[in-house]
What we know:
The protein is mainly α. It contains 13 helices and seven strands. Helix 1 (6-19) crosses helix 9, helix 2 crosses helix 5 (106-117) and helix 3 packs across helix 7 (151-161).
Amino acid sequence: MRFIRLSTIVISLAVAAATWGRTADDRYIEYINKYSEMAVDQQAQFGIPASITLAQGLLESAAGRSTLATKGNNHFGIKCHKGWEGETMLRDDDAPDECFRVYSSAAESFRDHSLFLSRERYKPLFRHDVSDYSSWAKGLSKCGYATDPNYATRLITIIERYALYTFDSHAGREAEEMTQFLWQQLRKTHPVRRSRGLHYVIAAPGDTYSSIAKEFHIKKKKLMAYNDAETDAIKEWQEVYLEDKLDEAPAGVASATIGEDESLHSLSQRFGMKLSVLKSLNPKAKDRPGERLRLR
C-alpha cells in the first residue's frame, strides 16, 4: 500500500461530497474536508490522533454550527477554567451560564485543544498508540473531558462512520479507491453498543426511527415506545435504545442540566432513563436549556 499526500485524501473527500449528491452527512464531510489537515498538523506536533481531534470537533461544534463555534471559534467546548485570560462567552452546559473560551480563529481553537490535552490530567492518554482511537476515546471519558456517560461511544461512532482513522496514519489508497472506501463507511449499519445492560445504537445524520426499526426488524411503534419518541426524527448522535430504558440514572449521577440544543427527552436518552421517571422527579421543571434536573 502506497503512502499518499494528505491533500489527495482531502481532494477525495471534496470529490465525494460533490458526487454523491446532497445528504444529511454533507456538513460533516465538509467539516472534515476543511479541518482534517489542521488536525493532522496537531497530531504531528502533540501526538494526539487526528481522528480524535476531528471527532471531538464534529461532536462538540455540531460540525461547526454551534453558537460556540460560529460566534466564538470554540470547536471543542473548552471552558474558561483557572488561568484563562482571553475573551469569554456564557452558555448553559453542566450548569447555567458557564464560562467558555473564545478564540480569534478555528486554528487557535485547534491548538488550544492540543495544549489542553497536554495537561497533567490527560497524561494517561499518551500511553496509547496514536492509531488506537478507541482507547483514546475511552481515556478522554475516563479523564473527565465530558460528563456524558456515552461520550466515548459517540466519538468512536463518528470516527468509524467517516473513516477518520485514515488521517491517523496518512496511509491510504489512490483517490478513486479512497472515495469508494469512505462511501462504504457512510453506508455501514449501526453497531450495537451496550451500557448498564441496555442495548442501543448511536443515530447518524439522516437516521429516523423508521429506518432503524427496519434495520433491526423491530416494529417502529415499539422502538419509538422504548425511546419515548413522539416523532420519527432523531437527534444526530443520540442514543436509540433497542429495549426499555431504566428507571434510574447511572450510579453517582444525582443531577444534570439541560444543555444548549438539548431537551428533557435528549437528556433522558443521554442517561438511559425513562422520560416518565425524569418528569416525575421534576414535576415543575421547564423543558429549556439551563434547567437543572434531579436524576434521583
